[in-house]
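[step 3/7] fold_predict: job queued, chain A
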Amino acid sequence: MVEAITGVWAARHSEELRRGITIKLGYADVPIYKCSKCDPPQGYTTKEICPQCDSPAEFVRGISFVDAPGHEALMATTLSGASVMDGAILVIAADEPCPQPQTREHLAAIEIVGLKKIVIAQNKIDIVDEKRALESYREITEFVKGTVAEDAPIIPISAQHSSNIDFLIQALEEYIPTPDRDSTKPPRMYIVRSFDVNKPGTSLDKLTGGVVGGSLIQGKFIVGEEIELRPGIRTEKQHKTVYEPIFTEITSLYVGGRAVKEAQSGGLVGIGTLLDPSLTKADGLIGNLVGRPGMLPPTLYELTLDVHLLERAVGTKDMKKVDRVRMGESVLLDVGTIITVGTVISIVGKDTVNLKLGRPVCAEAGSRAAISRKLAARWRLIGYGVIK
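[step 4/7] structure written:
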């Protein structure tokens, strides 16, 4: 579907290409244009020249897509992606009964991270007959009743044949508007990918610093300014494992594949740095928060959470009842784009717990943390907590 809209195949990892599934977070940028001579939805296009009437189209806005894995075993990666989004397209296959376990889990993830702008894409409409398509539509409307997606439009598409993509773009324009952002706030960016862009055998004098990519949620970055990454990198001090923040300089900025001098909040941003590429290779810095030195939240090795549990563990076939978090229990936490294990070290009152973290997080009070519990050898989403 992302390729049908953007022309970019978001899965780049070799294992993703071999198996035909999304494992890591994929990403793609696309400009949206609107032709004044054609009525919607045909007037919406991703081309500068309208394919309907060959007239110049007016640029509306740029959109960044984060392609999250559908497989339930990769739910933590999906939650990391959802934390940087302004809205979501929930993709449901018309040739399968709805909901599938992973569909329940994805909708729960959307609600837990606080997303409210949703469009539903009823995909694979080309391989079902009209009767099944209508039955699938009824299943979807029944499934989303009473949820945050209850009023979301359901757009039948065929991603394989790029059918109804103009209707989908129209729905994105109408139901997921660009939110207001404050460029005067201190910049904050969650890292969702990090890279070593140097080819093997590159000589020392031609090496390029590491690159980090993510979503700039507030403020702006400028080429040449100093930045801080927290929690940073793991190190040993006095026989104790600690994380130290990293300081570096922005050498380049990329938005939508174009080099820019200044990056505003909204969309995905690539930041070239002076970092040792060994730190950024193979997504080594995922989960870090980027900002100006001294202006980021503190690094937390322990968390106090007000816990809000779901009634049932989504993603399990039998919709297992969720029991309260227990003393000594280890749970998986997604805070921003950091994935860490937290062990309950104390329970304060009925719904407040203190956890010791396997990997520290950089987060402010009031931020949300998705909570997953290991059920039948897999991490399953059971609720969320609010950091105190």
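[step 5/7] annotate
The domain at 2-175 is CATH 3.40.50.300 (Rossmann fold).
The two ends are 39 Å apart (CA to CA).
exit 0
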